[in-house]
């Protein structure tokens, strides 16, 4: 854990700046790691030039006032069929209908500030799991962190909890929690299983990870340190899993199964995902919000 910042750096505005800077630094780190994987993927399974992220800045609102914005970074490559790593800092007023759902929004007069990073990777190979990461800080009259990371293997034999990729991912998330007082791995693991679930199909979206929301232990430094740990551990473990499966050949049947399972991803994100709802109801960038959609998907 970092040494606590001097007093003048722990004002509300300074905390916002530190969180925003961390999310931007994590975006840069993950982009670098993912482009390295893209370079390593080659013949006979992957063809064409290695992809590169394209960054697009966006601003919220109609331009008549400053409401924040973000940077959308998307790569469509030979190994990463589609991956987005986005950061944002948005602020303004919640609608009357939405503010009642957000702690502290009524007391703040509907004013809010939020910053975070959001990532979703859909891989060309059905042997490489899809993955999601999101961490964020939100401020109304209260302040808290939320987010997590989860793994979505796409083939039947991979969706067992003891599958090595899932076991290693969970072990990494447990390490992210270890030593951080605000974090309880077992609680966050259960919350992830409960959240990333499709009740209309009575099935989980993937094999889980951790999920936490409205984390405010009363120690902002500790909460921030834990959130950084989640990002750091994710940036280490997912490239290891992807590299492990990179050169495994796949069949046409496995590709078909991957596309069908991606449909479950779409269903969750459009029906249940809170981040999608928050982004759309606060005037976020639609292209960035919906970039989580897979590039090719089937409902047979």
Present the secondary structure layout:
Blueprint: H1 12-40, E1 54-59, E2 68-75, E3 80-93, H2 96-99, E4 111-123, E5 130-139, E6 143-152, H3 164-177, H4 185-195, E7 197-198, E8 203-204, E9 208-215, H5 220-245, H6 252-271, H7 274-281, H8 286-289
Antiparallel strand pairs: 1-2, 2-3, 3-4, 4-5, 5-6, 6-9, 7-8
Describe the model.
The protein has one domain: Coproporphyrinogen III oxidase, aerobic (oxygen-dependent coproporphyrinogen oxidase, 3-Layer(aba) Sandwich). A 7-stranded antiparallel beta sheet has the order 1-2-3-4-5-6-9. A two-stranded antiparallel ribbon has the order 7-8. The N terminus is likely disordered. It is of the alpha+beta class. 39% of the residues lie in helices and 24% in strands. The N and C termini lie far apart (49 Å).
Question: In terms of structural class, how would the helical and strand content be classed?
Answer: alpha+beta
- N- to C-terminal separation? 49 Å
Helix percentage range: 25-40%
Architecture (CATH level 2) name: 3-Layer(aba) Sandwich
**What are the low-pLDDT stretches, counting only 5+ consecutive residues below 50?**
3-8
């Amino acid at each position: 854990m970092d040494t606590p910042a001097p007093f003048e750096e722990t004002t509300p505005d300074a905390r916002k700046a530190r969180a925003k800077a961390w999310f931007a630094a994590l975006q840069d780190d993950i982009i670098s790691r993912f482009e390295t994987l893209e370079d390593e993927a080659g013949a006979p399974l992957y063809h064409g030039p290695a992809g590169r992220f394209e960054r697009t800045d966006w601003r919220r609102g109609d331009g008549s006032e400053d409401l924040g914005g973000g940077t959308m970074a998307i790569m469509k490559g030979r190994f990463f069929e589609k991956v987005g790593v986005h950061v944002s800092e948005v602020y303004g007023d919640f609608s009357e209908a939405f503010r009642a759902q957000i702690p502290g929004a009524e007391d703040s007069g509907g004013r809010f500030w939020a910053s975070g990073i959001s990532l979703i990777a859909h891989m060309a190979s059905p042997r490489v799991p899809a993955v999601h990461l999101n961490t964020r800080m939100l401020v109304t009259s209260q302040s808290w962190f939320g987010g997590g990371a989860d793994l979505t293997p796409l083939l039947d034999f991979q969706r067992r909890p003891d599958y090595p990729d899932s076991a290693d991912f969970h072990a990494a998330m447990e390490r992210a929690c270890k030593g951080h007082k605000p974090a309880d791995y077992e609680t966050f693991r259960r919350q992830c299983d409960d959240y990333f679930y499709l009740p209309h199909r009575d099935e989980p979206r993937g094999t889980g990870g951790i999920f936490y929301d409205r984390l405010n232990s009363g120690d902002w430094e500790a909460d921030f340190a834990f959130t950084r740990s989640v990002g750091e551990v994710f940036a280490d473990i997912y490239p290891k899993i992807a590299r492990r499966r990179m050169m495994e050949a796949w069949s046409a049947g496995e590709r078909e199964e991957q596309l069908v399972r991606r449909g479950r991803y779409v269903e969750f994100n459009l029906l249940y995902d809170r981040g999608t709802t928050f982004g759309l109801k606060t005037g976020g960038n639609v292209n960035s919000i919906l970039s989580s959609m897979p590039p090719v998907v089937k409902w047979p």
